[in-house]
Amino acid sequence: MQNKAILGGAAALAVLAAGGWWALRTPATISVEPASGARAPAMANGLLVVDPAKAAALGIATAPARAAAQVPLADLPATIAPPANARVAVAATLPGTVLRTLVVEGDAVARGQALAVIASREVMTLSADLARAHARAGVAQSSAARLAQLSREGIIAGARADEARAQAAEAGADVSEKARILGLVGARGGNGTYTLTAPIAGRVTKADIQAGMPVDGMTAPFVIDAAGRYEATAQVPERLIGQIRVGQTVRLPVANGSVSGTVTAVGSAIDPATRSATLKAQLPADPGIIAGRVGSLTVWSKASAQGGSGAVTVPAGALTMIGADEVVFVATPKGYQRRTVHRLGAGDGQVVLKDGVRAGEAVVVSGTSALKALAEAH
């Protein structure tokens, strides 16, 4: 009997111990809410509920999705150069010797700006010829005036007066021609020099000249590339021929963003070695564009032509991968909704989405990785 009582008491103690262990364990398991009362994120139908204070702590920020009129079609390596008709060689008009150079290679110049001063014996000769032509013209004009008066008085025949007028006109033409030549070269007859000037505004890309060297009319010591426009040349892969057309927009990334231009020509013949055709595009001047540079040229097409009539543009940082899906998070009054999206293309730090987001909706662009972690936890 005594043994039964002992066994019964031991059993009771075991039950009490088990109950006490459960009572101590249960609160630690179900008490998941912070003392402040904020609830853990919940997710239903792709909606992630995040307390505003926590969203701010996670650095979540949004930006509106914008309707996309264009879609990046291809990124093509391209070489930048001035157009063929925008490069001008500045030749030495008269033979002579370089006295002084006024610009160096790489300088930007305005139209009419002095480039170099040349000493030339021909300037002295032309100046002397001009002085003699002035003298002859003066004599011829005086003679023509005198004979015209005599002709009116009937003293001489009118033919002699007409001949004198012709000689005066010829002398005047000779003066004008010699003065024009000296004016074109910027000559200073008194010291026998003339000045080479820039015929266009642009940048000096060649300056093969220095003080003391001889020049003649057959050499061009300066080459100037016109300011204001450049030409990009790229190769279009065979698969894109027919999709890229004249007039489409192109963009070239530069240090301060991108520069937009226009496709001006697309070759119709395919190079058998590269299986590509040549594309040419015109670009405006920009400090970030340098002739000879190789860059990535993005060709853009109308979104409607690529099956994206409802396409929108969002920053590239808005997209993330969850499983095999590319997703964005859209801010709604009830929380952040996960949306699976499909892209049409990307360029300039933006992604064009075919579906999943409507224009004007607020897309999470900062804190995306934090929302991804919360979404994957559910």
From TrEMBL:
The keyword Transport applies. Belongs to the membrane fusion protein (MFP) (TC 8.A.1) family. It comes from the Bacteria. Residues 88-224 form the CzcB-like barrel-sandwich hybrid domain. Pfam families: Beta-barrel_RND_2, BSH_CzcB, CzcB_C. Residues 233-285 form the CusB-like beta-barrel domain. Keywords: Transport. Residues 312-372 form the CzcB-like C-terminal circularly permuted SH3-like domain. This is Efflux RND transporter periplasmic adaptor subunit. PANTHER family: CATION EFFLUX SYSTEM PROTEIN CUSB (PTHR30097), SLR6042 PROTEIN (PTHR30097:SF4).
